[in-house]
Amino acid sequence: MAELDVGGVKFKGGKGLAILMALGTMIGTLYGGFEVYKDYMDMKDKLANLDVEAIAARNAVLETKLEEAISYAKDIKNDLRSDVIAVEKALGDVEGRIRLVESENRTSIQDAKKWFDERTANIDEKLTSMEDRLNKRLQRALDNPLLKDMKQ
């Protein structure tokens, strides 16, 4: 078995291993404590050198800029809203004009159709009258006794 001799005291087997582990744990704990203390002292120095007034002044500047940005965004939103309302109004006006023009076009088309129908009917009447007169003349000419004598 392994034997450990420390200051004239001999340790055998598991006891020696337990003592080594205890010493290692104690050294690790002391080192960790030292690192924590060192971090604490570094942080204390940083906090001592911290300029609270400069931070407060910077925060005030940032708050002012933020307020300006919010105000600007609200102005843009209001301008966009008024532009959208104006576009909708203009669109409504255009739609109204389109309906008016369509109505006028329908009326014009109906009037033109009526006019053409009247003219067509008038021409049809004249053609029918002319045809009737021509048929009567032809019939008179055919019924003319003088023409009968000429045929023979």
Overview of the molecule:
By secondary structure, this protein is mainly alpha-helical. It has a domain at 1-50. It is built from 3 helices and 2 strands. It has helices spanning 14-49, 52-143, 145-151; strands spanning 3-6, 9-12. The longest helix has 92 residues, at 52-143.
Outline the fold blueprint:
Layout: E1 3-6, E2 9-12, H1 14-49, H2 52-143, H3 145-151
Antiparallel strand pairs: 1-2
Short description:
The chain is mainly α and 152 residues long. The protein is 89% helix and 5% strand. It has a domain at 1-50.
Order of helices and strands: EEHHH
Distance between the termini: 172 Å
Main-sheet strand order equals 1-2
Whole-number average pLDDT? 88
According to DSSP, the number of beta strands is 2
The helix/strand class is mainly alpha
- Residues in β-strands, percent: 5-15%
Q: Roughly how much helix do the residues carry, as a percent range? A: over 70%
Oligomeric state of the chains? Answer: single chain
Largest sheet: 2 strands, antiparallel
Number of helices: 3
Q: State the shape.
A: rod-shaped
